[in-house]
């Protein structure tokens, strides 16, 4: 049914348009035109009510079909989503197998705020063997000079030095004291230099 019977307009069966319809009813025993028109009106009303019932059933069927279509579409969408998630999970597992180093968890450790102190190789060697080492090597001036030597691209040679047991040993040149370098003795350090060097040498020891 295409047209909604609820919107149908009741015809006027007393007009000339329905003369033939009234005549057929009169031939079948209806008394006059007025009664024939009334009969036509009753017939139209009964047909219209039946059409309304059919229209209501049709709308209910269409609603059920639309709901079923939506439910089916939602199920298909969920299935596609699950399939996509499974595919992504499988791809990620495969990627983890191939590139384990790429997925190493990042440490939550904080970035150190205390600057790293790197004294000269000479000072480090002196501390390692337990010998006296001037505080100068742990002042800002001494550390800056050590940094310059560390960044230098010039090759360092080897020097033969005597050990405490009388034997001699080869050591890197940068582990020896530069005879040309001007080293401030501990007693001649300023309070500022002393306050710089003392905590650093204690940590290094």
Describe this structure in words.
The chain is mainly alpha-helical and 205 residues long. The chain is built from five helices and two strands; from the N terminus they run ααααββα. The chain has helices spanning 19-27, 33-98, 121-128, 140-151, 191-204, and strands at residues 158-162, 168-172. Helix 1 crosses helix 2. The chain is rod-shaped, with a radius of gyration of 53 Å.
Q: Helix/strand/pairing class, anyone?
A: mainly alpha
Helix coverage percent: 40-55%
Q: In percent, how much strand structure appears in the residues?
A: under 5%
Largest β sheet strand count, sense and barrel closure = 2 strands, antiparallel
| Rg measurement, Å | 53 Å
Provide the succession of SSEs: HHHHEEH
Number of helices: 5
What is the terminal separation in angstroms?
100 Å
Morphology call? rod-shaped
- Tell me, rounded to a whole number, the average pLDDT: 81
Low-confidence stretches: none
List how many beta strands DSSP finds: 2
How is the largest sheet built, in terms of strand order? 1-2
Secondary-structure map:
Blueprint: H1 19-27, H2 33-98, H3 121-128, H4 140-151, E1 158-162, E2 168-172, H5 191-204
Helix pairs in contact: 1-2
What are the defining features of this structure?
205 residues; mainly alpha; two-stranded antiparallel ribbon; rod-shaped
């Amino acid at each position: 049914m295409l047209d909604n019977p609820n919107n149908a307009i009741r015809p006027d069966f007393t007009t000339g348009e329905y003369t033939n319809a009234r005549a057929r009813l009169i031939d079948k025993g209806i008394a006059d035109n007025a009664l024939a028109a009334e009969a036509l009106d009753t017939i139209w009303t009964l047909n219209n009510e039946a059409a309304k019932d059919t229209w209501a059933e049709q709308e209910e069927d269409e609603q059920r079909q639309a709901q079923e279509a939506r439910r089916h579409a939602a199920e298909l969408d969920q299935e596609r989503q699950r399939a996509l998630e499974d595919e992504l999970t499988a791809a990620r597992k495969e990627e983890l197998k191939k590139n384990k180093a790429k997925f190493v968890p990042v440490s939550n450790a904080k970035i150190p705020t205390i600057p790293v102190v790197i004294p000269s190789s000479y000072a480090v060697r002196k501390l390692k063997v337990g010998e006296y080492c001037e505080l100068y090597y742990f002042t800002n001036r001494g550390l800056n000079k050590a940094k310059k030597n560390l960044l230098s691209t010039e090759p360092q040679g080897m020097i033969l030095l005597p050990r405490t047991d009388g034997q001699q040993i080869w050591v890197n040149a940068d582990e020896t004291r530069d005879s040309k370098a001007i080293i401030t003795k501990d007693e001649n350090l300023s309070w500022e230099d002393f306050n710089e060097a003392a905590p650093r040498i204690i940590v290094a020891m």
